[in-house]
Amino acid sequence: MRRTLVAIALTLGLLAMPAAASAAPLTFGIHTPGDPFAGNTNGIDELERDLGRRVGIVSWFQNWGGEPWVTKVQPHVFQAVTRSNRLPLVTWEPWVQGGGTYQPRFSLRRIAGGAFDGYISSWAQSLRALRSTVYIRPMHEMNGDWYPWAGTVNGNTPGLFRTAWRRMHQLFRREGANNVRFVFSPINEDWPMTRENRLERYYPGRRYVDVLALDGYNWGTRFPSFGGWRGFRRTFSSSYRRLSRLGPQPVWIAEVGSSADGGDKAAWVRDMFRTAPKMRRLRGIVWMDTDTPHEGDWRARSPAGVADAFRASPRSRLARPRLLSARTARVGRRATVRWSTMHASDDVQRWRVYLNGRLVRTVSSERRRIVRKRIRRAGRFRWTVRGFDGQGAKVASASRSFRAKRS
């Protein structure tokens, strides 16, 4: 479910990424053919075991045109993902796959004019009924020229894209689908590289976007006109900076992969996990685990030895929520601890809060992240907040000390 390839020229003069490490944890995701359309995540589970890295996001693609199984919301597909305590990310594509870029039925002018209002509202109603958080990525890579919703084909413009997006978002909110998060996802390099086609021109505005995302690949020497072998930093640094300026939302890389032609794919993956934490706003990375004749082999287990490069180090497995509390408290009054995590809430299903090692309260992931406890004696105290996933495994932990004084 991918695009027809086009030549993407090498952009020069890439800007350096911020050196400061990310304060929030990074969620790793996968797109692999077949899952979760069968109503399970068996392939994802097996891949997770082989890679030795928790998969927290499951990505798949659905079209507006075609058979009902791909055009309509299939509750069992979303439920398979949420039952596995992962975040569903569906890429929503207004086209008949394989029909080329000229598909007047799916022009942005028709979407913006209301021709698909009934269809869009039906999706909003079905996703609202799931009662769980869903990430939806409509009309991705709009700053390329290989999809019928792109701004330079099919009679489209960036302005029509913004109007179509806002209309779609408004229909979802009108239907009460407040559990749906909208992901704005351009390609990392504008094609064609014109001022009118810059990714910034497609941005519909902060109130209509929950996550800012990028797609980008290391094509290697198999497709030299696509820029040749490029590391993770060179692939994303310039576009990450540009995207981050659009708004304060968390940033994801919604599609990424590396060829093995022309370099060491395992080393590329290891560099990705070293570099990503330096991108302060980055919260999620979704690997494209696919192998197609027209794009190449992006699979995470190919060639031999690549899977080991994904393996999480013991230090990287445990997220560290940010704790906020007063450095001092008064005896007889309540001390307070607040904490925050990434936008996607990591994989935490419940939080346990301890004071000097004794459990104070258990808080579900949906509740406000704040706990208060009355202090009855003077001395040093220590808050500890731990997050646990649906299987009871600890996935987040942080502590902070404070002193209690008599009034």
Describe this entry's structure for a reader.
The N and C termini lie far apart (66 Å). The chain has two domains: 27-309, TIM Barrel; 322-405, Immunoglobulin-like (Sandwich), CATH 2.60.40. It has 407 residues and is an alpha/beta fold. Helices cover 21% and strands 28% of the residues. The chain is built from nine helices and 18 strands. Helix 7 (232-244) links the parallel strand 6 (211-218) and strand 7.
CATH architecture descriptor name of the largest domain: Alpha-Beta Barrel
Distance linking N and C termini: 66 Å
- CATH fourth-tier homologous superfamily of the largest domain: Glycosidases
What sort of overall outline do the alpha carbons produce when their principal axes are compared?
A: globular
Question: Biggest sheet, in brief?
Answer: 8 strands, parallel, barrel
Report helical residue fraction: 10-25%
The gyration radius over C-alpha positions equals 23 Å
Strand order of the largest sheet: 1-2-3-4-5-6-7-8
CATH class of the largest domain: Alpha Beta
Low-confidence stretches: 1-23
What portion of residues belong to β-strands? 25-35%
Number of helices: 9
Number of domains: 2
| Helix and strand run | EHEHHEHHEHEEHEHEEEHEEEEEEEE
Give the number of DSSP strands: 18
Based on helices, strands and strand pairing, what is the structural class?
alpha/beta
The average pLDDT score comes to 89
